[in-house]
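Hi everyone, sorry if this is the wrong subforum. Our group has a chain we'd like a structural model of before ordering constructs, and none of us has done structure prediction before. Sequence below.
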Amino acid sequence: MNAAANDFRIERKDQGPSAEAPRLNIALIVHDLQDRPGHSLYTKVLANELSRNHDVTVFANVHEETANARWTSQHVRAWRGSALTCVQTFPLGMRAHAATLSSYQVRHSQGYCGGDPNVVTAHICVAAYLKSLRDVSLRHRLSLQLMASAEARFYRRYAGQVVAVSEKVADELRQSYDFSGPITVIPHGVDLARFKAEKREQHRASLRKHLKLNESETVALYAGDLTKSHAYLKELAVAKPTVRFVIVTASRAYHWAAPNVQILSPTAELERYYAAADAFVFPTTYDAFGMVLLEAMASGLAVFSSDQAGAAELIDSSRDGFVAPLDQWVDSTAQRLSDPDLLRRVGVAAQQTAARHDWPSVVNAIEQLYLKVAAA
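Answer:
Right subforum, don't worry. Here is the predicted structure as tokens:
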């Protein structure tokens, strides 16, 4: 996410929050409300937009200042020693708010957060993610095992409504945790004002010059965690030496040197990198969704995803993107990556698909779910 997130507002459309709907008292519960993608962005979008017509309070351990916010904040105590300790101690902090929370018609938590929720958005299934990992430290694996155990206990007892960000996550909750309650699949959205193909003319030439890339070169972009993709990216870079690979990642490990590979630190202006690229490559071993896929599609890029990303469910393979199993991904991608006409044609279709998955659509779907929960 970028610095603009603090003032993030989605463009209003007919499917935005309804002024005619009954006014609800909504609690949004999240570990951190920070300037980053994933559950923080999701919660901030809901808070900003739903507070137009409803009373919204965000319960979080960390709150970033948001200009002109219409919603209120409640601090939840948690120990910040590590991600694990925050996840484990946050529900204890929520107990101090039990009396206050009981007055809210909707108590919407982001995963396992405590607080007696009646709506939970599953942004990940930790047990499934843990199963997908191979090359990780013992300490990290043990931490994830503890998180998965806590998550399993929660879902086995939970009787409320679950929102899954993909069919993939919905299936994983049922298979990993034996969850048998109601699940509504509502995919993440994309900011169509920020990510759009029209920005190509604005940013492409200047960023390519900055990165020392020729206009005639085919540039494939990757953005994300290298833990889940480095092996396949390395194979593809070897298979396609004439393609330039730009990798934007916060990962400190798994870097490698190659004449056609540039590994860069995270940027607050990822839309400029989409504009400079010709394709987006995403051989993830696990992503509950993968917001970068939808951002790349909205930016008019042909995307090459593994079938292990939840957002791949939105792709009609070979029409508005490409999806392949990991054991076929390198060969499948290498065959198509140097065909500029194909990349352009698929990129146009990708932008049209992404336009159907904007944030107003997500907010509207969540609001309709709230009304059903409150009525029940």
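For your construct planning: The longest helix spans residues 138-157. The longest strand covers residues 55-60.
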